[in-house]
Amino acid sequence: MKLNRRNFLSLGVGVVAGTTLSPLPWKLMDDVSIWTQNWPWTPVPPDGEVTYEKSVCTLCPGGCGITVRKIDDRAVKIEGIEGHPVNDGGVCLLGLSGLQLLYGPTRIKSPLKRVGERGEGKWQTISWNQALTEVAVKLGELRSNDRSHTVACISGSDQGTVPGLLNRFLTAYGSPNYIRTPSIHDSYEIALSLMHGGQSSAGFDVENADFVLSFGSGIIDGWMSPVRMIKANSIWKNEKSKVVQIEPRLSNTAAKSDTWVPIKPGTDAALALGLAHVIIKESLYNKDFVEKYAFDFNAFKTIVLESFGPDDVAKITGVDKKTILSLAKQFAGASKPLAICGRGQGKTPGSIDEVAAVHALNALVGNINKPGGVWAVSQPDYIKWPEVQMDAVASSGMKRERVDGAGSEKFPNANYLLNRWVGAVNSSKESPVQALFITDANPCYTLSDTSVVKKAFDRIPFVVSFSSNINETALNADLILPSHASLERYEDVPLSAGLTKSVIALSKPVVKPQFNTKHVGDVIIEIAKKLGGSIEEAFPWDDYETCLKATLGDKWDALVENGYWSDPDFGVPPWEGAFATGSMKFEFLGVVRARGGEKDVQAKHLFTPVTIEGNEKSYPLTLIPYDSLRLANGSIGDPPFAIKTVEDTVLKHKDVFIEMNPETAEAYDISEGDYAVLNTPKGKARVKIHLFDGIMPGLVAMPTGLGHTGPDEYLAGKGINFNELIGPVEDADFGLDVVWGIRANLTKA
Amino acid sequence: MDSALIPKGVKRCSLGLFTLGIAVAGAVLLWGVYAMLLCWIKGLNQTNMNDYYGFALWIWADLAVIALGGGAFFTGFLRYVIGKDELKNIINYAVIIGFICYSSALLILAIDVGQPLRSWFIFWHANVHSMLTEVAFCLSCYFVVLIIEFIPLILENRQLDKVPFFHNLSHNMHEVMAIFAATGAFLSFFHQGSMGGIAGVLYGRPFGSREGLLVWPWTFFLFTWSAAACGPCFTILVTWITEKITKKKLVKDNVIRLLAKISGWMLATYIIAKIIDTWYWATVTAPSMGFTLMDFYSNNAFYGIWILVLEIFVCGVIPALILITKTGRNNSKLLMTAVILAVIGVCINRWVMVLQMMAMPVLTFENWVLYLPSWQEVATTILPVAYGVIVLALSYRYLPVFPQEKELNPID
Amino acid sequence: MKKEHKHENTKKFGMVIDLDKCTGCGACMVACMAENNVPFKKDESDKLDSITWICVYKLTNGKSFPDTEICYLPRPCMHCSGIGEHGHSPCVSVCPATATDYDHTTGIVSQIYTRCFGCRYCMAACPYHARYFNWWDPVWPEGMEKSLNPDVSPRMRGVVEKCSFCFHRYQAAMDKAYTEGRRELEEDEYQTACTQACPAGAITFGDLDNPDHKVYELKKSPNAFRLLERLKTNPKVYYLSSRDWVRKAGDNYLEAESKVKKKIV
Ligand SMILES: Nc1nc2c(c(=O)[nH]1)N[C@H]1C(S)=C(S)[C@@H](COP(=O)(O)OP(=O)(O)OC[C@H]3O[C@@H](n4cnc5c(=O)[nH]c(N)nc54)[C@H](O)[C@@H]3O)O[C@H]1N2
Ligand SMILES: Nc1nc2c(c(=O)[nH]1)N[C@H]1C(S)=C(S)[C@@H](COP(=O)(O)OP(=O)(O)OC[C@H]3O[C@@H](n4cnc5c(=O)[nH]c(N)nc54)[C@H](O)[C@@H]3O)O[C@H]1N2
Ligand code: SF4
Ligand code: SF4
Ligand code: SF4
Ligand code: SF4
Ligand code: SF4
Ligand SMILES: [Mo]
Predict the structure, then answer these.
(1) Interatomic CA distance for residues A5 and A7, integer angstroms
(2) Which H, E and C letters describe A160-223, residue by residue?
(3) Global ipTM
(4) Using a CB-CB distance cutoff of 8 angstroms, which residues of chain B are in contact with residue A9?
(5) Residue in A with minimal Cα distance to C54
(6) What's A494-524 look like in SS3?
């Protein structure tokens, strides 16, 4: 056949028609769409057998009971344990994001040794044997030079077997320098020891209170045990209990309260004393408690009546007299009133005067160790290990004064003073700390004035981190001995964040360790064995699990079964015999006496405003931090899910917003979304402005929890770390960091 | 060089000049194709659309281009169904413009969907309640009609016509063209309406939502009506531009004026209906949902009340008045002003029915959102323009598009 | 006869969210993300393209210091049953490919990702912005895909997704009931992930038509309202608030009807 134009065209038409009518195009169309439904780059999670494993969330001190849904050996979802004494089924967004930390690429996959400069992030992977040997060699060296006391350990907790083993190790080795990271618990513990006597932590029976007077506590913003507090808040709504929130900014807690009382920041103690004045003056206090169980009510009464009249207090606090009178009457008139403090999430100790004044209010209405009140709770006492047999080096090391000065003549009441520790490391010619171990803490991020903290780290020749995920502090270490993540290990977790029960939870290996990590407990035991002698002898266990089972004894089975153990006999002591002070009574002026105001009690002993850094002329504004559950501000930063919930008026791309009253903004000729440079005596930051009617004019507020340098692109580099803009302010008598804000100025950028 | 392909008895510019023009349009076309490939390969993240602006520039372009392409069905309807014979002198061009508009619309839709390879699900899993289903079916069917209407014209190319098969085919197709034109008009009435229905049925969107007749909201009828009114204006406009570029008269004034007159009456009646619709919407529909008219037009200058004034009065009432008066039609400046205003007016209407509707918050605690298209969106929206220019240029050069051209431009 | 039969076999699942209790903590958002394999990007601060099936809005009363008030409002899909409860939800009736559908036995508005071809008409139709488009391919950082839930398939780029009332949990509960020879579920057998996680217990989920379920009474509270009721979308998510301005913020009112000024944060 000759291929002429006509044939060619007919052929073309034929081919087109034929193909169209054949199944081919239809089949192809179908196949292509099936392909789009199964793109190989969109994962298909494998199915399998469903099981649940109970454990505890350790992402914050809250200690919620969790049950982890597994598909074969994969953990796929974290849920709350119903009926759990802390969270009864609820979980917060951080806990819900836990698997992103477990499986995320921010995990440290094996022991790492620094090869570049500190903080540069250059690491060499080493074996566990090499890592532990290097630690043992370093520790051996220090010890043989009689410098065992220059070894320190910073930890997020001092309860449970892991902190116990660490502390025990330091004792056997010869160092008193075990330090817990600071928080409101420090102030509560000191206040309780001075007002109640003995060692206890504050428990709050929030569920049963019917009138809650909160001095800035972020009850539903992460204070104490976040989920439990939110649950309590719902109970209050059901029971029509009243909540009064006192703070200069309309936080979520203030927004959910029945009454929001804006107050000049830093003057809360004065308001508490003003309320005490009214309660005493109008004779609304609990006479039974005050007369029988209080030691120094009359002295307290005299000074409060003299110096804290509503007019004066109104002037100091900016809260009007009518409100003061009405609050006092409502508080005293309630059947189960509860006064609490600890600013925001309580991440800084804050003023002890404030804790003392607020606690005095509870005492006035007799709501101590009572349903709906504040309880002095002693920690579960289940760790019964044989006493450490110290050798000569250890004994002499343990006699040395702590680097942070806690427990010294100057600060006899403090247990831990990490803020002073930083100062001490920086101020001596040679660092008093030659080796540092860090676990469960991220001080390079969480301590205020981070640049000074980093300087202190630079002066310590040997820094070891146990972190299981990359964080700012681990980045500044020489050696990382990565711990199993909490979902990969056994560990007892005594719950104490404001709880009025004695509960121990058990963290369980829900999944097998994903990487070449090791339990901190095992690391300690192995190092002890390498060091030998009395140190080795202090650790008679083969491994951590043996130690843990032996320590928990008959509680073990219940812990494995339920994920927690609760002391069935737990109760608070009645007033009779509850107080272990010198007078064996409640001491209203316990804190005042510790301040040296024993003889001539003056108003200044009860309340001296904490002066924040910066003068008013160059820094006309006051910068305060604010905490939010959507922004984890502890050692763990927001995982991807959590950061996704942050509003675009808090963070937009890389920029953080500071909140400002429209009235203040007008004075600065600044509008919503404008860029500005925020200056404080400690630092400077480029921020964006969010106009917010709920903040007191003259203040600006910045969220905590941003400005991370790690661990991944989902979090790093977003916003500013508030701690870079603020420095600690030390309480002269107790050594704690009492800072609540800093002065600032603003220029439009 | 290509003179063998050029229709007899007409003059065309040199091949070099022509190639140059095509090259310029081709460059723009390639830019658009590049953006289109980006959207297909990388996905719709290449656009600035978002979850609040799920419909944006493209859907506007789609609606606008279909409204403008309405010249084809309406002129066809007038020519073949009503029997306005003079219109045979412009029907070819109207069909080509329609073909370009509809093929562009289909292309834009293929870029606009997130899963273009599955877009046939619209036919396979069709939901009869959806206006978009109606659009898809009618649009595709009508596009086939347009192809059928375009083919005989292509076959009239001097060389193709020499093939007896094509010659006969073309002839026979002409014979039955009235049937196709009528089918096309019917389909068009529907899909133009469905396009209007798209916004009108959104009872969750008070800006677009309209009451109506049976399952059709008033916008259904308004869209058909406005496309019938303004589509021919676009045909006139494109013809006029072609005349300016070729520096030739191609269609006699009486033809243009007839079309303009019909358009004018369509526009006048449409704009009356539109005013009644707006009034009813502003005083009855919107208040029943808790809105006042000004809620739709305040907040930002971009979507101020000016846009309603511009659409209805400047681009509706004014051109209608010009076109229905003889003096208006006979004054070519006035005529062209009216035609341009009408074209702008229908585009604004489609614009607000897509973009303003998306911009406006419905929940009381949400805010207006505004969006700026990305360059990829702009490029893919200009792509059809370049494509249209090329198709028009090729058609004009090689096909006997304008029956009156020879008569009006005799070569000595 | 037919009516009775119908009543027995059809459910109307819905929610009552107590805004007095909701603290804005965001746990519901994350519970939903974790349960439903919701993807995330490196920057999620552009809320116009950030997928959160349940989104917690922050409302204010628009007053200046110190009279300012805030209320949080979590917004899942409302599972609108449309005018006359016929199942013509704004979004369902417009979907050209039947990729989203109204299930008359549960009242749940489904979304079939593999059928959706991404025309986004449903998004335009939903006045609650409850629908989200996958503008990007979902990407899980290395290792994190281990935490994906096999009961909910991860979505591919180019399709729309939204809250399903955790429909997979309903299916699982029904499967279990059937193997146990039951045809009815107890109230607590089918609960959504957000309800379960909410620390405040602010979300109550159940069959709105079943007098034994808590939602049945709760929805009748004088403090109950729904969002944009005037549009006749007929949502199955109710809200409770003791505050007048919050209830007013649920809908649009003409000035003559209300003195409450609209205000957005
Ligand atoms: N989303 C989110 N939520 C958070 C956070 C977050 O970052 N994100 N942060 C969380 C954090 S870090 C905090 S601090 C909270 C509030 O945090 P807290 O509830 O303050 O938690 P911890 O400070 O870990 O509590 C340690 C407990 O050990 C007790 N304790 C320690 N030593 C002793 C002792 O010698 N004797 C006695 N009797 N008791 C002792 C203390 O009293 C205290 O109760 O908010 C938490 N919530
Ligand atoms: N200026 C200022 N300073 C502060 C505060 C403040 O608000 N402002 N807050 C204080 C308070 S309350 C606190 S709690 C601290 C917060 O900081 P920390 O007390 O330091 O926080 P933690 O959560 O106790 O520590 C968690 C660490 O453990 C790691 N980790 C995560 N999972 C696991 C695991 O499974 N096993 C082990 N071994 N490690 C794991 C993390 O990577 C991280 O390094 O900062 C304190 N300091
Ligand atoms: S409150 Fe704390 S312990 Fe509870 S789930 Fe959240 S992070 Fe975990
Ligand atoms: S989890 Fe509960 S309290 Fe938290 S934002 Fe959601 S609904 Fe509100
Ligand atoms: S809320 Fe939106 S997506 Fe959900 S059913 Fe209603 S219209 Fe559809
Ligand atoms: S985007 Fe998907 S679900 Fe929505 S209307 Fe289009 S096809 Fe239907
Ligand atoms: S019901 Fe399920 S899908 Fe819907 S928002 Fe809640 S968790 Fe997400
Ligand atoms: Mo803490």
Answers:
(1) 6
(2) CHHHHHHHHHHHHHCCCEEEECCCHHHHHHHHHHHHCCCCCEEEECHHHCCEEEEEEECCCCCC
(3) 0.89
(4) 163
(5) A645
(6) EECCCCCCCEEEEECCCCCCCCCCCCHHHHH
Tell me the residue ranges of DSSP E strands in B175-214.
Answer: 212-213
What distance lies between CA A276 and its chain's CA centroid? Answer: 31
Residues B93 and B117 in one domain: yes
Structural domain span for residue B42: 14-48+373-383
Is pLDDT of C6 > 60? no
- Domains in chain B, number: 2
Domains by residue range for chain A, with CATH: 5-36 (no CATH), 50-91 (no CATH), 112-182+392-485+518-539 (3.40.50.740), 196-379+574-606 (3.40.228.10), 621-748 (2.40.40.20)
Determine the residue type at A545.
Answer: E
More confidently predicted of B11 and A466? A466
Q: Does the distance separating the beta carbons of B120 and A29 come in below 8 Å? A: yes
Q: CB–CB of A35 and B117 under 8 A?
A: yes
Give phi and psi for A631, each to the nearest 5: -125, 100
Looking at the fold, whether B57 and B30 belong to one and the same domain comes out as no
* Ligand 6, pocket residues at CB < 6 Å: C 94-95, 97, 99-100, 116-122, 160
Query: Residue C209: its pLDDT value, please?
Result: 95
User: Considering the domain boundaries, does residue B388 fall inside one?
Assistant: no
Q: How many domains, chain C?
A: 1
Range of the domain at C201: 2-264
By most ligand atoms within 8 Å of CB, the mutation choice from A508, A519, A636, A702 for ligand 2 is A636
Question: Domain holding C73: CATH number?
Answer: 3.30.70.20
Chain A nearest-CA distance from B116, in A, is 9
C130 Cβ inside 6 Å of ligand 5: yes
- Residue B1 belongs to a domain: no
Say yes or no: B19 and B70 in one domain.
no
User: Does position C2 have pLDDT exceeding 60, yes or no?
Assistant: no
pLDDT band at residue C262 using 50, 70 and 90 as cut-offs: very low
Which structure tokens are listed for B216?
Answer: 């059709």
- Which chains neighbour B (Cβ–Cβ under 8 Å, 3 or more pairs)? A, C
Q: What share of chain A in percent tops pLDDT 70?
A: 99
A36, A79, A105: residue with CB nearest C141: A105
Which ligand lies nearest to the CA atom of residue A633 in the structure?
A: 1
Atom of ligand 4 nearest to the CA of C56: 5
Contact (CB, 8 A) for A82 and A66: no
Residue A552: DSSP 8-state: H
- Cβ pair C97:B122 closer than 8 A: yes
Residue A656 one-letter amino acid: V
Structure tokens at C27: 């746990």
For residue B203, list chain C residues with Cβ-Cβ distance below 8 A. Answer: 83, 90, 231-233
Please report residues of C whose CB lies closer than 8 A to that of A645: 26, 29-30, 52, 56
Q: How far apart are CA A419 and CA A186, in angstroms?
A: 12
